[in-house]
Specification:
The complex is a heterodimer of chains A (471) and B (488). Chain A is mostly helical. Chain A has one domain. In chain A, strand 2 and strand 3 form a beta hairpin. Chain B has a domain of 294 residues. Chain B has a two-stranded antiparallel sheet with strand order 1-2. A two-stranded antiparallel sheet of chain B has the order 3-4. In chain B, helix 8 runs antiparallel to helix 12, helix 8 runs parallel beside helix 14 and helix 9 packs antiparallel against helix 11. Classes of the chains: A mainly alpha (471), B mainly alpha (488). At the A-B interface, helix 2, strand 3, helix 4, helix 5 and helix 11 of A face helix 2, helix 3, helix 4, helix 9 and helix 10 of B.
């Protein structure tokens, strides 16, 4: 009986013009998302390579490693961040690394090209949260109330069909049709990724699969909710209106309201205040060191090379000291801000998780490595690079560049023309994207929440239908 | 007759359950967006005020003219309450000094990505996405619904011209929805004026323009929904057609324009341009350094054969001149670098503007894009904000550096410190003009000068006209469609 009902339900849905139109539109949109993603990836790679090339070229012709003060590192584009943009376009992509000092990321994609910020990127996450969820409602808003209006509900129950079987058939039929009809364009889109030459690793595929699975769970929430609402209302227009209101509140309002509330409720010191604190501290340190430098007396005068070396050693020691103090101070100030931010994030996302839309967004962006934590992840990688770069520079010049110091060495006298430096020797920056293992723990909660809400609504739908007046 | 139908429609809408529900939701949404906008604006304004104070304090603490650096900050426009646009995406501030080019840094979203996760919910978004959806909801079955329930035949059994009927229907629905929209909007404005958002008369004028734009956009959707209804047979078919139209107009078309423009007009990234600039800078300094070595060698050669005392005397006599020469050389290099940087920047801006123009021209095939672009223009949060800010900061930078230059000459000496290692004199370290504050009272401060309202409104006026054309075309389509409609 259940099988029969499921098949009937699928036939009902698939045979309608509504399905033909939504299926067509959905397929088009899904394919569009994958094409846009693949194109965005290639554009980003092009930009990234050009920047990297130009960065090395600027050092060509330099004959002295002392002239190398800094190195720009750029966030390498990830295939998944092109599909689920998250905050990838909002945070800085470039970090200027000196041997020491605090690192900041600048040049976000949207600040570089505000044109893209006007309409934002059309990505997988937006497609699922906003567009497909609306379609899920369209699929099932009249599941029960529509049949009642048409009178077919009474006919069905003229035969010996248990109500539970009927509603289970409705739910399963709707789920199956939705999943199967979406899997088709998604599979085609994934194939397009390969065709368009996006280098997806095995890990990327696993994460993409998880994102899509989370997406289906999210759509399932709206599907089961639609069946539930349709089993609580007598007219299909009423159920549609109720669902639309719920959709607007869940998708558009609650997530933003939660962040807004957290922004007001938890006070985080502004970036400017923190920067000013640091600048003041740094200026104080510099003042102390200047007098130390002025007091420098070479142990033996005469040999210029030796004096210069001695002075540089002292400078190095001062700079290291200054660096250490600055680091301590900065890390204290940063940590204070970080802690406040953590509280703010916990409040914002804890509240936002009331709605499945936020659960899905958080899970998808975390899986794609483009969640709000992306900035810290990138900065941590550049900090590791800073160490490697500093050590390299010390090995090359005996000095760790940094702290806005320019060493101009004027050599008076004959010397043979020095060779240009080989820029290929500079250590390369590597950015390890999040792996499944790193993000699985963080997303488990969201996925479980989505599952729980699904179950809740399914049970609710069954319970509501058991009491439904089919006349 | 016309008024009878209008009244009938008005009653039909105002008394429906659908209306009560949507009215409630829309009111809550509009009010919430305005409250959120106010909270965002006040937070931004507070941040701006503290940042200005901090920058001023840093200027006051500067101890020499060589190393002085100011900060230029971009204040939030009060209209971000209604339209955030790209305000949160582009940088808030730039360092202003002699050795760095102007560059906007620290955008709100880059500083605190938490706010970027769900973005902001502004009135423009509500009107663009939600209200358009509601407009469809109230119009998709205007004709098909009446046909199905049979009332269409009854109505037209009266001596009622079709044109009058359809126009009256459109007017009725439009008036009903608009009346109900104006209630939360006016309430929202009341909240804005009570919340202490500093609005000048010209700001109110812009808000007025914003509302006219929203009204026009809403009208396009009302007319569009009715037009679709006159070209389809059943309500479900018209609903599907409307939905497809909505998705294409609101979600797809605007982005297609941007995608196409990206494809057609290549623009280098800022990182690339910066690296180019840096490369030029390095090369220029390298050349200068080589010249410096050369010149010192010549100066040494001129002293060939002098005794130690003669050397000293010669040096003392010429040192000032040499320093002047070197200083002039250094300045020439810096000017050259600045000019090159500005040229690159100019080139980048031109390319980018060309790309933007193409993208937005293509996007304007969609009323949603027209509405959005016009609103951003009116609220001064459009893409031109970045260029406008950077240009005005560049002007400020030249004023600032000129002033600092003058002061530097007056005070004499250089900043930083100088280390001399001489085979004869040995080691010496000097750091002139260390402590002590500077007189910064007549140092120019950055003044944000926004685009004049007249120009903004003139630009947005064209978009308004375009929206009106869309609305009239949809209405014409509805009239034509209904003339040929089989009412049975």
């Amino acid at each position: 009986m259940l099988r029969l009902l499921i098949i009937k339900e699928i036939r009902d849905i698939v045979g309608s013009t509504k399905f033909a139109v939504t299926f067509g539109v959905c397929s088009l949109l899904v394919l569009l998302v994958f094409i846009v993603g693949a194109r965005a990836y290639h554009t980003a790679v092009g930009q990234h390579d050009a920047a990297k090339r130009e960065n090395l070229r600027r050092m060509e012709g330099i004959t002295d490693w002392m002239q190398v003060h800094d190195m720009n590192v750029y966030m390498p584009p990830q295939p998944l961040s092109a599909l689920v943009a998250g905050v990838a376009h909002d945070i800085g992509r470039t970090v200027t690394v000196e041997g020491r000092g605090e690192l900041t990321a600048h040049d976000s994609r949207y600040s570089d090209e505000p044109m893209l910020a006007v309409f934002r990127q059309f990505d997988l996450e937006f497609l699922f949260t906003v567009v497909l969820s609306l379609f899920a409602i369209l699929f099932a808003f009249d599941a029960v109330s529509g049949e009642k209006e048409r009178g077919t509900l009474r006919l069905t129950f003229a035969s010996p069909v248990p109500r539970r079987t009927f509603i289970a058939g409705k739910l399963l039929g709707a789920y199956l049709t939705l999943v199967v009809s979406l899997l088709l364009p998604i599979a085609a889109g994934s194939a397009l990724l390969i065709v368009m030459g996006v280098p997806m690793t095995g890990d990327d595929w696993v994460r993409l699969t998880l994102i899509i699975a989370a997406g289906f769970l999210y759509l399932g929430v709206f599907l089961s909710l639609s069946v539930l609402v349709s089993a609580m209302t007598t007219r299909s227009t009423t159920s549609f209106l109720v669902l639309l209101v719920v959709w607007i509140v869940a998708v558009l309002i609650v997530p933003r309201a939660a962040v807004l509330f957290a922004g007001r409720a938890v006070d985080v010191p502004s970036v400017d205040a923190v920067a000013a604190q640091k600048a003041k501290f740094s200026a104080g340190l510099w003042g102390d060191d200047r007098s130390a430098m002025a007091a420098f007396k070479p142990s033996k005068s005469g040999d210029m090379q030796a004096v210069m070396q001695e002075f540089q050693q002292m400078m190095q020691k001062l700079a290291d000291d200054r660096d250490r103090k600055m680091r301590e101070f900065a890390s204290r100030v940063n940590e204070e801000r970080r802690n406040r931010q953590d509280v703010q994030e916990a409040v914002a996302f804890g509240l936002a998780r009331i709605t499945p839309a936020a659960c899905f967004t958080l899970a998808a962006t975390r899986l794609a490595g483009t969640s709000f934590e992306m900035k810290q992840h990138f900065l941590a990688a550049t900090e590791r690079y800073q160490k490697a770069f500093g050590e390299f520079m010390v090995a090359k010049t005996g000095m760790n560049p940094g702290g806005r110091m320019v060493v101009l060495r004027v050599v008076v006298g004959d010397e043979k023309k020095p060779e240009p430096i080989n820029t290929a020797e500079i250590p390369a920056f590597s950015y390890a994207p999040m792996q499944v293992a790193d993000v699985a723990g963080g997303t488990a909660l969201d996925i479980l929440l989505l599952l729980a809400v699904n179950l809740f609504f399914i049970v609710g739908a069954v319970a509501a239908f058991l009491r439904y007046d089919v006349r | 007759m016309f008024t009878t139908v209008v009244m009938k429609e008005l009653k039909g809408i105002l008394l429906s359950q659908k209306f009560a529900l949507t009215f409630g939701v829309v009111s809550v949404l509009i009010l919430m967006s305005i409250v959120a906008g106010i909270s965002e604006f006040t937070a931004g304004a507070r941040q701006y005020d503290t940042a200005v104070q901090l920058a001023e304090q840093q200027l006051r603490e500067a101890s020499n003219w060589m190393a002085i650096s100011a900060r230029a900050l971009r204040p939030p426009d009060p209209l971000v309450v209604f339209v955030s646009g790209v305000h949160n995406d582009i940088g808030r501030l730039s360092s202003i000094n002699g050795h760095e080019a102007v560059k906007l840094l620290n955008s709100v979203y880059a500083d605190d990505p938490i706010f970027a996760v769900f973005r902001s919910l502004d009135l423009m978004f509500i009107v663009q996405v939600v209200l358009s959806l509601f407009a469809i909801l109230f119009t998709y079955d205007a004709i098909t619904g009446e046909r199905e329930s049979g009332t269409l035949q009854l109505s037209l059994a009266n001596p009622l011209p079709r044109r009058t009927f359809i126009l009256a229907k459109a007017t009725g629905i439009w008036a009903g929805l608009l009346l109900s929209l104006s209630v939360p909007m006016i309430l929202g404005l009341l909240v804005v004026s009570l919340a202490g958002v500093p609005l000048s008369d010209s700001d109110w004028m812009r808000i007025g323009a914003l509302f006219v734009g929203s009204l026009l956009y809403f009208t396009v959707w009302v007319a569009g929904g009715i037009a679709v209804s006159t070209w389809t047979r059943t309500p479900s078919a018209s609903f599907m057609a409307c939905l497809v139209l909505w998705i294409a107009t609101v979600l797809i078309l605007p982005r297609v324009g941007v995608l196409a423009a990206e494809q057609l007009v290549g623009v280098p990234t800022v990182a690339e341009v910066d690296a180019q600039k840096d490369g030029f800078e390095k090369a220029a300094w390298e050349k200068q350094m080589a010249g410096l070595s050369e010149r010192w060698k010549k100066r040494e050669e001129a002293m060939q054969g002098f005794s130690k005392e003669q050397r000293e005397a010669y040096r003392d006599a010429h040192m000032w001149q040499w320093m002047q020469e070197e200083d002039a050389g250094r300045k020439a290099v810096q000017t050259e670098i600045d000019a090159y940087g500005l040229r690159l920047q100019e080139d980048l801006r031109n390319k980018r503007s060309a790309q933007e123009r193409l993208a937005f021209t293509l996007a304007r095939t969609s009323p949603a894009a027209i509405y959005q672009l016009a609103s951003m223009q009116i609220a001064r949060t459009s893409v031109t904000l970045k260029n406008a800010t950077e240009t005005s900061m560049e002007e400020y930078r030249s004023q600032f550096t000129a002033h600092v230059e003058k002061k530097q000459q007056e005070s004499g000496g250089t900043g930083g410190f100088k280390i001399t290692v001489d085979s004869e004199k040995g080691f010496s370290f000097s750091s002139p003009r260390e402590r002590g504050t500077l007189d910064i009272s007549d140092l120019p401060r950055y003044q944000w000068n926004p685009t004049p309202v007249g120009q903004l409104l003139a630009d947005a006026g064209w978009d308004g006209l375009l929206l009106a054309v869309f609305a009239l075309a949809s209405l014409a389509l509805a009239v034509i469609g209904f003339h040929r409609y089989d009412v049975r």
